[in-house]
């Protein structure tokens, strides 16, 4: 019984890592712009696909690049290149979809609709360009299985969990200890007064999208290494769940997004451990709804007042 509980805890930490990494991207954009970037889940999908094409390129799957690099080198090249290219996608969406509305002072509802549209364009654009057939992500890391009694751990699972904590620590350091992090917090506090202090608002917003998209890219690669079948709609449900996790944790607070992701991971895995898997989303979302009914601002969220 104890071994089963420990095994489920590790499984929950793995799933919570995916949710937390994506939820951190939601949290960053909302904290700076008060915008819920509903396209973020599909950026996670784009990151997985970009990682697929980069890794297969360096593994010699294409005739125009006949060189075959070692798996370790391919993984070391795939991660930063995927983060860079996925960040370019996120910045492009901000420049084309969100910035024109922001400069025109459009109502927040129109920005939300635009975010939903951007996500649908990414999904269906992927479907139109690559077709409906699924892609198999290559194995970039030789899988090692560790047995501790009846507890089973893989090196991929350990890397996923450690990566999530490392990214959170790095992001927390950037937001709380650097000048650009201070500027991000200043914009979230009063976006209209910040330009008067000489802070380039557009530059900070672009940096925020770079950070958020990079984390989505990391989550996409880690997810694809664990579950190597990719399809154009893989980011839809995962993105929605990560958004819900961010809200439960207290959207706008990176600690809340991180904790909320792991909370959702634990709830889902524990529900599957004791109930049929078909009840997973029903029971998990019911529990999260109960939490929000008692704490509407989320676990770390703080109610804000608006001066008139």
UniProtKB/TrEMBL annotation:
GO terms for biological process: D-alanine transmembrane transport; L-alanine transport; L-isoleucine import across plasma membrane. CDD domains: TM_PBP1_LivH_like. It is a multi-pass membrane protein. Pfam families: BPD_transp_2 (PF02653). One of its GO terms (molecular function) is L-leucine transmembrane transporter activity. Keywords: Amino-acid transport, Cell inner membrane, Cell membrane, Membrane, Transmembrane, Transmembrane helix, Transport. The keyword Cell inner membrane applies. GO terms for cellular component: plasma membrane. It comes from the Bacteria. The chain crosses the membrane at residues 18-36, 43-62, 74-97, 109-132, 152-175, 196-227, 233-251, 258-276, 282-303. The keyword Transferase does not apply. It is found in: Cell membrane. PANTHER family: BRANCHED-CHAIN AMINO ACID TRANSPORT SYSTEM PERMEASE PROTEIN LIVH, HIGH-AFFINITY BRANCHED-CHAIN AMINO ACID TRANSPORT SYSTEM PERMEASE PROTEIN LIVH. Belongs to the binding-protein-dependent transport system permease family. LivHM subfamily. This is Amino acid/amide ABC transporter membrane protein 1, HAAT family. It comes from Desulfonauticus submarinus.
């Amino acid at each position: 019984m104890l071994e089963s509980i420990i095994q489920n805890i590790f499984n929950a930490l793995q799933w919570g890592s995916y949710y937390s990494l994506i939820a951190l991207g939601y949290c960053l954009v909302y904290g700076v712009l008060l915008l819920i970037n509903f396209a973020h889940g599909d950026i996670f999908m784009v990151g997985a696909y970009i990682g697929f094409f980069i890794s297969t390129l360096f593994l010699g799957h294409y005739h125009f690049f006949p060189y075959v690099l070692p798996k370790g080198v391919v993984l070391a090249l795939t991660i930063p290149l995927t983060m860079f290219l996925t960040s370019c996608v996120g910045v492009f969406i901000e420049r084309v979809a969100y910035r024109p509305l922001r400069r025109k002072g459009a109502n927040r509802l129109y920005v939300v609709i635009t975010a939903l549209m951007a996500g649908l364009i990414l999904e269906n654009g992927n479907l139109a360009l690559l077709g409906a057939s699924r892609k198999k992500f290559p194995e970039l890391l030789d899988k090692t299985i560790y047995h501790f009694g009846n507890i089973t751990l893989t090196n991929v699972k350990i890397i996923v969990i450690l990566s999530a904590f490392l990214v959170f620590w790095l992001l927390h350091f950037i937001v709380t200890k650097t000048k650009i992090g201070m500027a991000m917090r200043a914009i979230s506090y009063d976006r209209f007064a910040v330009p008067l202090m000489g802070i380039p608002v557009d530059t900070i917003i672009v940096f925020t999208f770079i950070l958020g998209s990079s984390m989505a890219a990391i989550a996409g690669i880690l997810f694809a290494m664990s579950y190597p079948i990719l399809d154009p709609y893989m980011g839809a449900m995962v993105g929605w769940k990560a958004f819900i996790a961010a809200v439960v944790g207290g959207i706008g607070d990176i600690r809340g997004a991180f904790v909320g992701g792991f909370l959702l991971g634990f709830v889902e895995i524990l529900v599957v451990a004791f109930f049929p898997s078909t009840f997973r989303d029903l029971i998990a979302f019911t529990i999260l709804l109960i939490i929000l009914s008692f704490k509407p601002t989320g676990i770390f969220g703080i109610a804000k007042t608006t001066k008139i």
